[in-house]
Design brief:
Pfam families: CinA, CinA_KH, MoCF_biosynth. By secondary structure, this protein is α/β, with parallel strands linked by helices. The protein is built from 15 helices and 17 strands. The two termini are about 45 Å apart.
Length: about 425
């Protein structure tokens, strides 16, 4: 079954409000065996809304709208549905009574305008709203399902979960399950080339690549009538992919790079400290987002200025004068310094040019040097990242974490 989600509201169309409802519904529908083929945002214009609903009905089996169920003149979703479907609006007396009861609980008189919320397209059933005054609707017309949900997420989500999900479960005879592999150290084109026939000959499960900042995600999706069979199909493809990409896969589904690195450190009873210049504490921040990270993460220093590098980390002034603050030599001394003052098993550093200014022909914007100090010695690696300042900082912090991961596992540094 194919579903189309229509979000109604000029504030969504203009970007004043983020369309989180469509994201939530799109994430939940595959669990019910329903594919989402289209998402549309339409403003508070009756003519355009009617056209949008008609188009959705011509190409989708399930049409879900969110928003536009309030009592004011710009709340037009149910009216748009009725006109698109060619039916009249009718008063749903139980809904009107529930709305009145809610105002009584608030100890205030119900404005006459709120009666509009109790009208539904003829042929549709009202859906109770336990968290607001606007009931939703659900109806079937010409073998198509039309569902109208309120806009506020605190109302939409409970209504969807408690009233819509049970209804849709009875309409679908499939489930869709997905798992995501997270890959770092290799780009999307290279992954596609490595996986070859797994991608070009995919049917069920499907395999899709998504490039993120500093990593690539591989989403494996199976559609079956049997949950066990879906898991088996995914496991088979995942095993083939893991055999090809190996340690470039750092995690799965909700795993984050920092959480996996922290897990490796804990398992090996190792400790880490970071000395950051161009990332300004971002690496330490990502690491401390992990609960109980204090077991492995002992210290972080933001040594942004040259004097901070010298006075806090013990970098030689001559090193900075000769090679510059952004250099392999400085990064190595920063890593050794943070390891020494923190008394950790591993010390890591980063120094670079995040931009947009400060670059030169020999040291362009995006150039970063990453140092890592172990009991066996200290090394430094150079990279050039692209994008704006925030993107460069994020990519650089991700590279630091991946170098740490590979060092812990005894892998070659990429």
């Amino acid at each position: 079954m194919k579903c189309e989600i229509i979000a109604v509201g000029t504030e969504l169309l203009l970007g004043d409000i983020v369309n989180t409802n469509a994201q939530y519904i799109s994430q939940r529908l595959p669990d019910l065996g329903i594919d989402v083929y289209y998402q549309v945002v339409v403003g508070d214009n009756l003519g355009r809304l009617i056209e949008t609903i008609k188009l959705a009905g011509s190409r989708s089996d399930i049409i879900i709208t969110t928003g536009g169920l309030g009592p004011t003149d710009d709340d037009i979703t149910k009216l748009g549905l009725s006109k698109a479907l060619g039916v009249e609006m009718r008063l749903d007396k139980p809904s009107l009574e529930r709305i009145r009861e809610q105002f009584k609980r608030y100890k205030t008189a119900m404005p006459i305008i709120n009666e509009r919320q109790a009208y539904v397209p003829d042929g549709s059933k009202a859906i109770e709203n336990d968290n607001g005054t606007a009931p939703g609707t659900i109806g079937e017309y010409d073998n198509k399902i039309y569902i109208a949900l309120p806009g506020p997420p605190k109302e939409m989500i409970p209504m969807f979960e408690e009233k819509v999900v049970p209804f849709l479960k009875n309409k679908s005879d499939h489930i869709i399950k997905s798992h995501t592999l997270k890959v770092i150290g290799i780009g999307e084109p290279a992954i596609q080339e490595c996986l070859g026939k797994i991608i070009t000959e995919q049917t069920n499960p499907t395999v899709a690549l998504y490039a993120k900042d500093g990593e690539v995600q591989i989403r494996i999706t199976a559609k079956t009538q049997d949950p066990y069979l879906a898991d088996k199909k995914i496991e088979d493809i995942e095993s083939r992919i893991r055999n090809i990409l190996g340690a470039d896969i750092y995690g799965r589904d909700e795993d984050t790079l920092e959480s996996m690195v922290n897990q490796l450190l804990r398992e090996r009873k190792k400790t880490i400290a970071f000395a950051e210049s161009c990332t300004g504490g971002l690496i330490s921040s990502r690491f401390t987002d992990i609960p109980d990270s204090s077991v492995s993460f002992l210290n972080g220093v933001v040594s942004y200025s040259n004097e901070a590098k010298i006075n806090m980390l013990g970098v030689n002034r001559e090193t900075i004068n000769k090679y510059g603050a952004v250099s392999m030599e400085t990064a190595m001394e920063m890593a050794s310094g943070i390891k020494k003052i923190s008394n950790t098993d591993i010390g890591m550093s980063i120094t670079g040019i995040a931009g947009p200014a400060g670059g030169s022909e020999t040291k362009p914007v995006g150039l970063c040097f990453i140092g890592i100090a172990l009991d066996s010695g200290v090394e430094s690696y150079s990279y050039i990242f692209s994008g704006n300042r925030l993107k460069i900082k994020w990519q650089a912090s991700t590279k630091v974490l991946d170098i740490l991961r590979r060092a812990i596992l005894g892998l070659d540094i990429k």
